[in-house]
Design goal:
This protein has one domain: Thiol Ester Dehydrase, Chain A (Roll), CATH 3.10.129. The longest helix has 19 residues. The chain is 27% helix and 30% strand. A hairpin with a 2-residue loop joins β1 and β2. A six-stranded antiparallel β-sheet has the order 1-2-4-5-6-3. By secondary structure, the chain is α+β, with helices and mostly antiparallel strands.
Length: 155
């Protein structure tokens, strides 16, 4: 699969997630090696208005989304792959005022489970805020209706 198709698929996938739209997340980079998403720093992700520190839940959302959508980079066909397990090791707090980035890659794909790993960072990927590993269940390509997005939400 071409990098341009991977990028298109990841952008489309992200655009369907309402909470990601509200947070302003966007695809920074996507190819067969992995996915990088950007979570812009904003008041919506602050845990303490006085300090400006980012809430841990925002980082969890960024990394669950990044790992989940990274499955698109590893699969030939689109599949829904819900989270089975997600472990995040926080290294240090995110700096106030700076965007956050999440990078994830799929390092093993089996017929039933996809294994991912990645990091959350701000200015330098070599200085991660958190490390993450996640597993995602493969539901199969027959689960997805390619026309669902065009139809809109079901009643």
């Amino acid at each position: 699969m071409s990098d341009s198709l991977i990028l298109e698929r990841t952008q489309r996938f992200l655009s369907l997630l309402r909470h990601c739209q509200v947070l302003g997340m966007r695809v920074q980079h996507a190819d067969a090696k992995g996915l990088t998403l950007c979570l812009p720093y904003s008041e919506k992700i602050i845990s303490d208005p006085e300090s400006g520190f980012v809430h841990g839940g925002a980082i969890t959302t960024l990394m669950d989304t990044t790992c989940g959508i990274s499955t698109v980079c590893a699969l030939a066909d689109l599949e829904i792959c819900p989270t089975l397990d997600l472990r995040i090791d926080y290294m240090h707090p995110a700096e106030p005022g700076h965007d956050l980035f999440g990078f994830a890659e799929c390092y093993r794909v089996t017929p039933t489970v996809i294994f991912t790993r990645g990091v959350a960072y701000q200015r330098d990927i070599e200085q991660p805020i958190a490390h993450v590993v996640g597993t995602f269940m493969r539901m199969g390509r027959g689960v997805i209706d390619p026309n669902a997005a065009a139809k809109g939400p079901s009643p």
